[in-house]
Amino acid sequence: MSHSNHQELQALSKIVRATQGADFGSALQTSLSRRRFFLAGGATISFGALLAACGASESTGIARIGDSVPDNALADVAVTDVVLLRTATSLEYNAIYVYEAVASAGILSGDAATLAARFLSDHRAHAEATSSLTEKLGGTAFTQPNPRLQSIYVEPALKLIVGDTSSGIEPTADPVADVLALAYALETIAGSTYQAYIPKLSDPALRGSAIGIGEQEARHAALIGSLLNPDRLVSSFGLSIAAQYREEADVPALAYAVPTSFGTLSPAPVILGAANESGTRTTINLETPSLNSLIYED
Q1: C-alpha span between 90 and 293 (Å, rounded)
Q2: pTM (2 decimals)?
Q3: Which of 99, 77, 199 is nearest to 145 (CA)?
Q4: Which H helix or E strand runs over 124?
């Protein structure tokens, strides 16, 4: 050991003796001087480092306490036109899943059931179209619901509507209203997704296809919105539609549910399920697919 190391060891020994007998456990719970605490802690760490430096080992590694955290870099995966099309297709299958589940449960009837059947047909056509575009680009079509959106949005929402005895979830008091609310949110998110993908698609022809499908999704949402909130319908001039013109007119006025030129890309909140003891119902915020819910190719 060198002379300088010997002097440092003597100095550290004095620090250790000065801090012997200190009750760090109780002091940490009351008012231990930060200077004294760090002095003792620093002495312990430095003393260990010094002993390691003076040992017989010839290792040149830096002395440290514990293991370093490995560097887990994110995979560099390109978001291509194929990825966007596969993701759009997965959303169509999310909607297909919901409409098929609702039809199987017999929740809707009359005009609402007819409307849902039409929307189901539209989504099947959309899925076929986006799958075809995917294959034309050399990709593999995705023919399942988006797994992430299905697990965090769709399946929990359906459980809130029909109930789930294994989870202790009671069915909603108004399943028709909840189904329409969920369908409105899904259609809104679908339209927002196509709108968001337009500037991301590199092929101009694909942008045209995306806006065409997105327009239909927005129309779906607008029509469901008119069922949920008929009093908020406005004419093409921005005026409220009188009740007598909503059902009995030979040529009803055009109705819109989109207040601006473009739809919103923000989350679509939907309130579902039975109320709890305090009268509060569950809110699910549906969002457009993010990087961790895109359907990449293997």
Answers
A1: 10
A2: 0.69
A3: 99
A4: helix 110-136
